[in-house]
């Protein structure tokens, strides 16, 4: 099999490429240049896609004896990930740029180009598994160990994309074993820190970055009864569930902290209230996609049981869902137990056991205690 190994410059992608070579595949490494002005060095474990990462990816390919290329996807990344990020915040939603990058860059732009060049599959260092059924169709499943499972961020993959995905680390029990294997292979990235935070905001100051991209104006912070309790510097910089940064001028009547309940960008208003009011029971979703064959109930509109996960490292919660024909949303989810701080714009990934069924973008989240305007 002819395999294109996506080389981030980290230890996971390096070992994934090495295993693809060991499996006898014809492997070519490629690093994606996603920024036109990449930083020369990473700051500890913050950020990724820097010149340092590109050099690390090249050294790994040299060690493995495979060709190495750099592909410039910076324009596509800016349009599909960066611009989408601040337009979503400007609309009062909380986007997940890593999901959008996987959807639009790593498993759309990259995969399309790989197939066009004659590659059979794209290999990445994600911790997830693909199971092929007797009829040849593929399903996406959690990795062998849930502590490193990354199936959530792959929930955007569709059936056609799964047919060309290759995840060599899916059965690996721990990251420590991957690092040990990298060291045994003489890969210089064996002890390189994992990247975290948003890659195009490497200092981690999302609010400061948004302030440079979006026109913000001061406005009122209201309580859940509509009474003004403070003032903000720009509603778009807040997200549902946020506690820090509210700077309210008066304490709550019960003396407990307040949290952001709602953002109203058209009114430039933030609503804050008690933690209890963050409980969400009903979620509606848009941009629905299936990771493999849809469940049978998708065609009939019947309810089906799922576990729902709304963040990469969150615990899934039991729920039931049904596909609906509605002009505002495509799927309705009723939670068996409430979730807190669910924000429009987040990604809701559906599971049955270890299988990833698919995902949708949260359009609304409702609570029996508090109804957003």
UniProtKB/TrEMBL annotation:
Keywords: ATP-binding, Cytoplasm, Disulfide bond, Nucleotide-binding, RNA-binding, Transferase, tRNA processing, tRNA-binding. It catalyses: S-sulfanyl-L-cysteinyl-[protein] + uridine(34) in tRNA + AH2 + ATP = 2-thiouridine(34) in tRNA + L-cysteinyl-[protein] + A + AMP + diphosphate + H(+). CDD domains: MnmA_TRMU-like. The record marks 126, 346 as: Interaction with tRNA. It comes from the Bacteria. It is found in: Cytoplasm. It is an enzyme of class 2 (transferase). It holds the Pfam family tRNA_Me_trans_M. Residues 209-273 form the tRNA-specific 2-thiouridylase MnmA-like central domain. The active site is at 101 (nucleophile), 199 (cysteine persulfide intermediate). The keyword Transcription regulation does not apply. Its EC number is 2.8.1.13. SUPFAM superfamilies: Adenine nucleotide alpha hydrolases-like. Gene3D superfamilies: Adenine nucleotide alpha hydrolases-like domains (2.30.30.280), HUPs (3.40.50.620), Translation factors (2.40.30.10). GO terms for biological process: tRNA wobble position uridine thiolation. This is tRNA-specific 2-thiouridylase MnmA.
